[in-house]
What we know:
By secondary structure, the protein is an all-alpha fold. It has one domain: Na+/H+ antiporter like fold (Up-down Bundle). It has helices at 3-6, 8-25, 29-35, 43-57, 72-97, 102-112, 119-126, 131-158, 166-195, 197-226, 228-233, 235-262, 267-278, 282-293, 298-326, 339-342; strands at residues 37-38, 41-42. A two-stranded antiparallel ribbon has the order 1-2. Helix 5 (72-97) runs antiparallel to helix 12 (235-262), helix 9 packs antiparallel against helix 10 (197-226) and helix 9 (166-195) packs across helix 14. The model is unreliable at 332-336 (pLDDT under 50).
Amino acid sequence: MSRFEKYLALWVALCMAAGVVLSQTVPGLGAAIDSWQIRGISIPIAICLFLMMYPAMLNLQLAELRKLRANPKPIILTLFSNWVFAPLVAAGLAYLFLRGHDELIVAVILLGSSPCTAMVLVWGKLADGNQEQNVVNTSLNTITIMVLYVPLVSLLTGIQNIPIDRVLLAVSAFVFIGVPLVLGIVSRRLLVRVKGKHWFDNTYRPIVGKIAIGALLMTLIVLFSLNGQVLIDHFDQLLLVSVPLLLGFVIVVGFNILMTRAFGLQYREAITTVIIGSSSHFEIAIATAIAMYGVGSFAALGTTMGLFWEVPIMLSLVYLGKALARRGFWRARGVGVPREVAG
């Protein structure tokens, strides 16, 4: 991980602040950006979100899924957390703390129902987790999110009869997941065939990954320049949505740590399971919120707050995992702590 990536939490905060400052100091900027749209879809946001999504889809490696039979336990535990425990916790906390704020409830549910497929590779590498397991899990998440995301969001919002446009939800999932997925598969095969796997893994993917981080930061600047006044006028709403988001992280992370201990996972498998099982695919959550409610909506800001909190929490989890490993928390079956962690 580069030094720039290690301080990603700082850059996220600075870009959000920069967006708010621009909204107040450059008159008409928000209106100008918002005018670049087609059928209600913001062109700048759509471009940034695609650049965020496409690199994640390059991680899909169907051949890796054959390795599930070798050590299925960590994968099964992660899937349970991603598709059962985390979504139920998100929905429960949203209904408990955000009653009467339907857009914020939907924002929390969108985040809780979307397992991560990209940034976990960064966190897993920093934590010296099992990267092979990471690739298998992210590949599986990429496939399952296409099938389960829309039905799960529809189910959890329908419990409290919160109206959402399910057709638009499905369309946004197709546009922001399906299209980058297809392009990712096609471009991967073509580039590996023409340039070779070594070039693809060591040159193309790192470059595209840096573009994705740049697109993420640019998305934040655009979002907050468009919504700066809304944020200032309704700052209490962002504090309100932060309560279930932060409490949800504590509950899900704690559950995953205890679950990996109870099932006797070793450190490298355990920390990867905890990281993937506790993170969200904030890109698709933000994209879906914008598609359904608009750029200036509370739903869009609520999902963006999920990103704001997730980055420092995942970084903290990396160091927490290493600290627990040094104390023998996951030292199952006599296996010691990896040298990188012990150091």
